[in-house]
Design goal:
single chain, about 30% helix, two-stranded antiparallel ribbon, alpha+beta, 2 helices
Length: about 80
């Protein structure tokens, strides 16, 4: 059984990264953008704005252990 979630764009057209940010938050949206494009062949050909009525398959949210912590470098301290 396929439990993948899909969203139909209604109301105003939206960018894919805006859609992902609304679903997963802005940080995770950047990580999931390539997976979302892989799940939706032909979506990039529609242009940057997803037209109304388009059905978009959303990637599954990865488990927290999937992301390794990143070392942050600061110039001031």
């Amino acid at each position: 059984m396929n439990t993948r979630r899909t969203v139909t764009i209604k109301g105003e057209p939206i960018l894919l990264d805006q859609l992902l940010a609304a679903e997963y938050g802005p940080v995770l949206a950047r990580e999931l953008l390539p997976a979302a494009l892989d799940l939706n062949p032909g979506l990039a050909a529609l242009g940057p704005v997803i037209p109304m009525g388009t059905v978009v398959a959303l990637p599954e949210k990865p488990s927290p252990s999937t992301f390794a912590p990143r070392h942050v470098v600061t110039l001031f301290g």
